[in-house]
């Protein structure tokens, strides 16, 4: 998959965001003459993940509406209610992919965790179902446990996640 450098990103941060070793990322991008100098929009090859445009699913998240919409082949399949980040811990706006799925992560993350390609952020369940529909998380997307389990059973690794206001 190709990632396009965003303002302020470094190769080290991109490696952390995609949970891959820095040296592996460097090896996948031999055209980088100076890995310490990146430019906005520069294509970076991310090894090990499919091109999201080749997958039938995508997720669109509206922070304002507090909804997560699942699309298959550009047709809306389902809309789920969510909780989002609170003041000082806002949910990051942008385009990411689902990197992995971890059932029963423990703690406040409910029965499923799906990492996003932004370090420390994910889509997960909750041990506090009354929080859904509110701005209460530390930036992650919270869902009812049954909803996040259903979503995780449908989407493949590499699914595009667009987060907007």
TrEMBL record:
PROSITE patterns recorded: LD_TPASE (PS52029), LYSM (PS51782)
Superkingdom to which the source organism belongs: Bacteria
Keyword annotations of the record: Cell shape, Cell wall biogenesis/degradation, Glycosyltransferase, Hydrolase, Peptidoglycan synthesis, Transferase
Stretches assigned to the L,D-TPase catalytic domain: 57-164
GO biological process: cell wall organization; peptidoglycan-protein cross-linking; regulation of cell shape
GO MF annotation: an example: peptidoglycan L,D-transpeptidase activity
CDD domains: LysM, YkuD_like
Matches recorded under SUPFAM superfamilies: L,D-transpeptidase catalytic domain-like, LysM domain
Database matches in InterPro entries: LD-transpeptidase, LD_TPept_cat_dom, LysM, LysM_dom_sf, Transpep_catalytic_dom
Boundaries of every LysM domain copy: 1-46
Pathway: Cell wall biogenesis; peptidoglycan biosynthesis
Enzyme active site: 124, 140
GO cellular component terms given for this protein: extracellular region
Family listed: Belongs to the YkuD family.
Protein name, entry field: L,D-transpeptidase
